[in-house]
Amino acid sequence: MRETIVRPRNEWDGALSAPPTQAEVRLQSIIILVVSVVSILGAGWIMLSFWLFPNLRSFRHRLILGLAMSDLIMAINFLCSTALNISGRLISAPENATFCSYNGFMTQVFVIQTDYWVLTIAVCTYFILAGHKRQSTWIQNHEYLIWSLPWFFSTLWALIGLVRDAYRDIGAWCWFKSDRTRLLVNFVPRWVIIVTMFVLYAYLYVVLYRAHNEMSSVVDEVSPRQRWSGHTTPARSVDTSFQDDSFRGERQARSSATLPRLRKIARLMLLYPLAYAVIWSLPTAIRIYNSTTDAAAPFALQTIDKASIVVQGLVDAVIYGLNETSWSSWRARLSPHGYPTLATTNADDANDANGANESRAREREQRSRRPVCGRRREIAESTGSGPSTVVEPQDAIELRDFTTEPHRKAIRE
């Protein structure tokens, strides 16, 4: 029978210091391992959705893919350290000092990298939906540079900690041993990012709300009973610079169906930063408490604190997956009826449907004369169906520029 060992606690630096007994370390590691597996599943779901569905390969979804990759690697890193603790080879042991340094480096890279990813997604979404043509065109033409920013800054912070030999065992994994360091390096910038997201998404909420009002005034010009077909229906282009990516979009003939989508998207905008604020409230409160009192938090709070960090992959899957196109795509794929087809509510709608089909055919013929470029070419080649046959489910929620150019001018005025 393994003996419970009282481990000497280093000079107190914060609530994330390792629990004092091996039994508590083992229990905490088991809980964190389970949460890590859940987080891996969440991140994997986003990545699998990106791979399966061409309509989830837009510019914004490619940024979400970067976030999911960071979540996945971070969760695997936690899985490795907790597995060592559970096996009895504690990461605090002298023979595991090299592993602890590596584990702490990886933790710092990807914990803060997820913050940079959500900020990047928020800023890019703002530029495109708020009608900043020059900025939105630039970021979409420099996608590789945008991708490199979260990796560069997060790796830079982690290398500084590695050079200063600052990574030590804190229980389920290794990280900065000083709670004050974690507070200043991670939590203060994180809340700056959350506040920035609130400001950006609040402004976009106003933009979409005004767009909703503008579109509701002309909704009677489109048949309210028209539904989705298996082919996308190009509509008027908002901006010629947005014609070659999903953000610019193959915009559907949504008519009145667009209005509730705008309202739903506007609400989702504010839920993103709110969800992160709720998740990080307890860890931040514990950091402040321990930095000011030098007292240890109860074991239960320590464990919840760490679980809040590890669960990031699941949270991002819910925020950026369940509430957007991927959830609808999965439902459509698993449905015995497949993707929705064009249907009308009664026989009186047949003429409207035929007219809509003829209009779509003419628009597809006109678009086929234009060269297919950029990401749309990649999707067309991967599906073998051409750019006009990318399928979207009936209730897919995608953050696109739903406002027409006159609407955006009215909004800016």
UniProtKB/TrEMBL annotation:
Compositional bias segments (type: Polar residues): 229-244
Residue ranges, compositional bias (Basic and acidic residues): 359-368, 397-413
GO cellular component, one term: plasma membrane
Domain named G-protein coupled receptors family 2 profile: residues: 28-324
Ranges for region Disordered: 229-249, 341-413
InterPro entries: GCR1-cAMP_receptor (IPR022343), Glucose_rcpt_Git3-like_N (IPR023041), GPCR_2-like_7TM (IPR017981), GPCR_Rhodpsn_7TM (IPR017452), GPR1/2/3_C (IPR022596)
SUPFAM superfamilies tied to this protein: Family A G protein-coupled receptor-like
GO biological process, any: cell surface receptor signaling pathway
Compartments reported by the entry: Membrane
Membrane topology term: Multi-pass membrane protein
Pfam families reported in the protein's UniProt record: Git3 (PF11710), GPR_Gpa2_C (PF11970)
Chief location of this protein within or outside the cell: membrane
Keyword tags: Membrane, Receptor, Transmembrane, Transmembrane helix
Domain G-protein coupled receptors family 1 profile: 42-320
Biased composition (Low complexity): 341-358
Entry's Gene Ontology molecular function annotations: G protein-coupled receptor activity
TM region(s), chain numbering: 30-53, 116-132, 144-163, 183-206, 270-289
PANTHER family: G PROTEIN-COUPLED RECEPTOR 157-RELATED, TRANSMEMBRANE PROTEIN 116
Annotated protein name in UniProt: Cyclic AMP receptor-like protein A
